[in-house]
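Pair request: fold both.
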Amino acid sequence: MTKLRYPQVIVDIVEEHFEELDFLWQQREAVIFAPDWDLEDLAELESRALAHLDGLSVGEGHAVDIARPALAGDDVFAAVAATLLFMELGTPELLEELLDVFECAEAAEVRDGIRIGLRHCRLDAARDRLLAMAAGANLACAAAAADVLAFQRVTAPEVARLLVCEDASVRTLALGALGRLRGLLGSEELERALADPDPAVERAGWCAAAMSGMPEVESRCRAAAMDGEKPSLEALSFLGVFGNPMDLALLQAAVRDVECAPLAMAALGALGRAEAIPLLIELMRPDSEHAREAAHAFVRITGAGDVWAEAGAPPPASEAELDAEFEEDEPLPEADKAAAWWQANGQRFTPDGRWQGGLEVSDAESVLDRVALQVRRDLYLAARAASQGSSADRELEARVATRAAAR
């Protein structure tokens, strides 16, 4: 049995390290695909978080005593911090304790936190047990284990069976795992996912289809977005990622539809065509109901920053923060500023290019490390879809210092 030391430390400082690790990892997960963060920003945030993990691990037994209650609570990111500590200390007893909680946790939040933490740790000693969990009867545990394994490109068993689970969160995790493990997502499973009534499951289905190299993702997406009986708003959004210049007219028409307008404008931003700019400037006028969405799309394409009523007002820190409260605090854009910027700079945006943040991104591989994290994800998905999975396999949610370039 490995006995932890109880070194002479200031326990209050060890506790502060735990609280900061909890807080910073929560921030990391919130901005992992943010429109106004890049790899350098993310690396700096991770460095701060891991410095607190180093400080926490110095406390050994004291730190474990502080972290252990998080594995019996209901706080996702406290459980992440506890997981990172237990795995950093690396004793067999702590690993067994952690995996016991992972397998039997009553609180979904705790299992989710352990899942997120395990994604970023070496799995050598945990691999066999995670494989057993992924094949087990507890479907929530199986989906979480499959997610961890697939994140590190270890093939998990029997993942497809999870796609018929009543729990939408299980279906979502299963699709994420199948997307990472090329060749395991069948056409029937994909069709079921893309027709799923839960939007999160459908989104996971489109991502999985692209990542795993399913054929005809672009045409499937276009057909779902144009379905006359029940058009898919999620497909409309992804059409900006997977589509081509021919889809510009469809998205411009969708902007005029009240229900479709926010997603259609986001899709125009992702499509990155200079021809969309005049319409976006028009929709930034004060009488437009979706002026902010139009401004974000304009900024995403052009990289222009000074289009807001208050100088320096940034885009939202993450997609999840586009809630009503945030929108009330965010300044309105000024269409005249955008029009003046475009008049002065628009000549360099050639109509045959795809533009993101002022960069021409048709050769996605050459710009992936220079664009915003949101754009990076979308370019990666587009490249995987277009190449049917033969382009470089990247784990975009991995830590910056450890992410693999290609496999």
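--- second member of the pair ---
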Amino acid sequence: MKTPKSNQQDSSIELNLTSMIDVIFLLLIFFVCTTDFREPEKRLPTNLGSGAIAADETRTQEERDLGRIVARLTVAPSGRVEYAIDGKRVASIKEVEALLAELQEIDPNVPVVVDPDYNTPLENVLDVYDCARRVGLAKIKFAASPEALSR
């Protein structure tokens, strides 16, 4: 004869896994968002092979010295904007563009730093930026003096 079900003890344990799966997905999202996917080897100094050394020997001294281009803009007491590319005075914006074109031919990936004086009109700063973009230079940054940042 069978015993009634009410007298039997239920020996199975029921686990609710929904909350545990939620926590696992949250941890997964956290680790994916905080992981740096850059290869650490690219950040370490490496010894390049002989091909890079041979290529460096064929470059001129001017090409090896070209680390970045600094375009300084200052306002003269007369109110005229003066340009200087890597310390060399340039008379007009057309000469700035010509000089940037020459430097771009040496190294098209060279960064350009536009360093205007605080009183330099924005129009002249953007003219230098436009010249650099026209000749094919893409890495253009702007410098600011501590006085300009505090104003």
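Observation on the second member. Confidence is low (pLDDT under 50) at residues 46-59.
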